[in-house]
Amino acid sequence: WNEIIELFRAGMPLRKHRCRFKSYERCFKASEAVDCLHELLGSNQNFGPEVTRNQTVKLLKKFLKNHVIEDIKGRWGKEDFQDDGHLYRFPPSSPLKPYPKKLSCGKEVIKFPDWDEPKAGTSQEHIPVKSLTMNSEMWYKRHSIAIGEVPACKLVFRRELTQTNIEEIWKSMTLSRLQKVLGLDSLDEVLDTKLVNSKHIVQNAYNVNKLGIVTLEDKSKELPHWILSAMKCLANWPSCSDLKQPTYSGFERDVFKTIVDYFGQMKEPLLTFHLFDVFVSVLGLLQKHSKAVEALQISCLLLPPENRKRLQLLVRMMARISFNKDLPPLSESVRTRILMVQAFSRCILCSKDEMDLDELLATKLVSFLMDNYQEILSVPSTLKSSIEEHVVHLQRVQIKYAGADTDATFPPPSFCHQISTDEFEYQRATGSQEPLEALLEEIAMNKEISVKDKKKQLKQFQKSYPEVYRVRFPTPETEAVLFPEKNKQKPPILMWALKKPFQPFHRTRSFRM
């Protein structure tokens, strides 16, 4: 409080202003005060550039209420300050709040070490300390201890964190959060964590443009310009700024086919082969919308930056085309939304050993991705904040009190533990059963598809995952329950059909013999 007041009084320009045909010396406009104080707060390490102009106005309201400033008629005490042209001035009396002093009780008070003057031989130049935005509660916790008696203490200097250290912290905490959201005992069930690149996570979190799209350091991995132009053409139809649209009929279908052909020739899907089981595990959370979104947010952070960017651009185009009523139909027989899912699901998600069921899994996931792409393909803010706070904590100078063991830094959170080979094989075999069981149950209970399609999908499931299928349908009778036979009533036997007219007995030649 006192520091900001002193800076404001020293930095605020004062000059003569006129108001209602009268001149006032050494005063300033309200808007000028907002400009000056906002700039001071932005450059102060206790506040930082995150301070908004609106927050600055609120602080000036407090200044007016506490007689740090007054209007040109000497009025103060209310919070009616506005960002306008009203004139204000500094009062002649000091607005600084006195520091509380504690009376001496005959006890020796240990001097608190000076923050600005480290002991001889100790250098602080190597310690990276990130500026932290302070609120009143944090300020009180940090500085109120200097008011009274404190036990003996010393400063503990942290080692400097390298970029590699920070990247490993990002990987560790990201995987730890993913494991918790998926509800797994270990990520080894669905993911080889050694294949996760920590640099990719950090690049996906920080190298983004104002739209949240990843910016690539290696420009050779960008999409070709002609594909980007084609995607923009359909996404922004009919207003396309990149090229002049020809007038021939079926042009938009030719452009769509070009995009489908390009993504269809990729050797690996955008969600990659080694992350396939992770995304399949998310299918079991689709009923819990918020958890599914968070799980997909974190999982997409693990992608290579070029894959993440292509996924962002592709899914955004798919969603825009699906809702664009001005775009002519791209197919005579299939609705546009269904066409989008069918055309691109395989290039987004499929396993290395392709199975018949991959199409069903991909269709379900891609549909959810299209409906929630803006949330899913953005950086999870809560995770980012927690990691940044942890990094700042590791970089900050700490205080060690006598008798307290605070030298040890917080260990990085662990995301896996060592298990035996047999347990690993068991977890690998059973790790994805829960989402598969949920998918099988959904197929079995789906009343919107025909009996023929249901039998076809169940047969595909049985072929791909016989163990999961056998648990749900152990006997043919349990499977037959899904397809009850209609009771066909036999027509009643008419009595007259049984009655034949009386015929006299005729002797035959063989009888006589």
Automatic annotation (TrEMBL):
Organism of this sequence: Phaethon lepturus (White-tailed tropicbird)
InterPro entries: DEP_dom, Rho_GTPase_activation_prot, RhoGAP_dom, WH-like_DNA-bd_sf, WH_DNA-bd_sf
Keywords in alphabetical order: GTPase activation
Protein name listed in UniProt: DEP domain-containing protein 1B
Highest taxon listed in the record's lineage: Eukaryota
Any GO BP: positive regulation of Wnt signaling pathway
MF-aspect GO terms: GTPase activator activity
TM annotation in the entry: none
Sequence ranges assigned to domain Rho-GAP in this UniProt record: 185-377
Keyword ATP-binding annotated: no
